[in-house]
Amino acid sequence: MARDNDLEASYAMANLAIKWRSEIHPGSLTTTDFSTANSQGVWRFAGYAKNGWPIMLVRTSLYDPSCYSTEEYVRYIAYMMETNVKRVGSSNPNGQKHFIIFDMLGMQYNTDLAKLRQLIRIANDYNPERLGIAMVINASTLFWGLWKIMTAWMDPATSEKVKVFTTDNVDFLEEHVGLEHVCTDLGGKREEDWPPP
What is the pLDDT confidence band of residue 1, given thresholds at 50, 70 and 90? Predict the structure, then answer.
């Protein structure tokens, strides 16, 4: 149960998630619903972790939030999370969880806090217990500044699933993913980048 087994808080969160899903319809979205955001190629499906969790790779250097609205960003993230969960069957003994790799190398200083807040809200409130691991690699000084803001918006159980690396992330990737599925620029052996959806 979400929210530290607090039944009342879990019930309130479930009601919010149902309301959000009825407004956004994440299962009905297509890439045409967020074509500007998708054209940047920031979020990509990137194979599977060793435990069967589907991986999403986030290339933050490609992110330019000024090109589209917060509403389009919400549709983009809703689509990615909904589609990613569908990539793993309900029979996976490790559950239907996300493994997200945020590559912070080259991240720009034009971060949109409204969009960042929506990312946290979608992951934390509308997809509770779906995050398995969020791995942040190449974390910069900018990231640490944002992290202080982000953790104030997160449930503590969610923030504990975030693993941050400034360097030396290869052993973690090998243990959880396998370097044959990790792009060479991230320390792996895969020569081609994972394509955007």
Answer: very low
Q: E strands within 49-174? A: 54-59, 98-103, 131-137, 162-164
Average pLDDT, integer, range 111-115: 87
Q: What is the CATH number of domain 2-186?
A: 3.40.525.10
Given a cut of 70, whether residue 144 has pLDDT beyond it is: yes
Of 188, 49, 197, nearest to 132 by C-alpha is 49
> What's the mean pLDDT when you consider all of the chain?
90
CB 37 within 8 A of CB 190: no
User: Can you give the pTM of this predicted structure?
Assistant: 0.91
**Domain regions of the chain by residue span:** 2-186
d(CA 67, CA 32): 15
Q: What is the pLDDT of residue 50?
A: 95
Burial profile 80-108: b = 16 or more Cβ within 10 angstroms, e = fewer: bbbbbbebbeeeeeeebbbbbbbbbeebe
